[in-house]
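Record Coenzyme A biosynthesis bifunctional protein CoaBC, 423 aa.
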Amino acid sequence: MSQESSEDRPPRVVLGVSGGIAAYKACDVLRRLTESGHEVRVAPTEAALRFVGAATFEALSGQPVATGVFTDVEDVPHVRLGQEADLVVVVPTTADLLGRAAHGLADDLLTSTLLTARCPVLMVPAMHTEMWEHAATQDNIALLRRRGVVVAEPASGRLTGADTGKGRLPDPAEIVDLARLLLTKRAALPRDLEGRRVVISAGGTREPMDPVRYLGNRSSGRQGYALARVAAHRGAHVTLVSANTADLVEPSGVRMVRVGTAEQMRASMLTESDGADVVVMAAAVADFRPVDRTGHKIKKTDRDPGALELTRNPDILAELVEAREAGRLSAEVIAGFAAETGDPDTTVLEHGRTKLTRKRCDLLVVNAVGDGRAFEVEDNDGWLLAADGAEYPILHGAKSHLASILWDAVSEQFARHEKPSVS
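=>
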């Protein structure tokens, strides 16, 4: 009898939990994974069970929980779990577990599973800043990454007690989003953006009419945040210029710049892009703004509503390209996004091709919008257009998957720009 294929069953995830105070957040990761259709087996360390009991993990996963290799010996769990897994996620990953994994120790079920796994492995560290920054920890992380393990960047914020700094566990939603991406790719994320400076815009600008009202759009900023998150995991130094995205969790390891209007977005993008290797305009910038903003709320009786006078906002993407052509910007790759709707005479893709020609950027992602597409949703699709005429359809999927496709294309652009070595 043939074995069940991976297409005929839900994805199998091993959720490792090590002994840190952030272990309780693994419960939220577990819940999100099981609710989205994944089959999850929890492999905690003995120390983890001092923070969260086995009964909690068993109730949330519907699977038995063990820490040692001598439970259910007849099933050889220390080998089988790793062999059958589609993904191993360790939340949180302590400094101790990083060291044991880096040096191939296998003294419990979790570390044995890490040695037998041939699927993508995601480790999400959480520890005090001093432990994260220690040379031993950084050496262990570098070693694991060279082996293909995805070691996520921790967030900055409140730690145990009154301490604050880098080392906080990223938000569970961010962890699950990265896990979904690794399951989709069925491979580790490359560190192909290591050392690159990346600047990304996200969100939708708002143009005030008065202290209450504004002209804006429906962009949530999720796609720009996904771009920033994936770029950071691929090794880039990322600056995210974010407009009106207060309800989104800041991506871990990303520098944030907050703006509101198109003029503020323009000023920040031009400033932050100085010295960048890649610039991506993913924000939805309002095309127009009111000529005048009143200092008081406009009343129904104040004036004719049709008298609102508008002026055009700057074309930030075009200005970035012009700055590069004039030698004021050194970015090797400039990419944009085009949210389009078709009309009786022109398709979405045709509109995108016209915009690519007009903007003169290197890459352009074209999204069809409307009816629950692109804006204010978790998933996305469209086309990736390149200045050399290449076109790639992007199938419907998580916005992090689209982000990964764009960064693959950016890496290809870098490869083309590299000068051949002279022997």
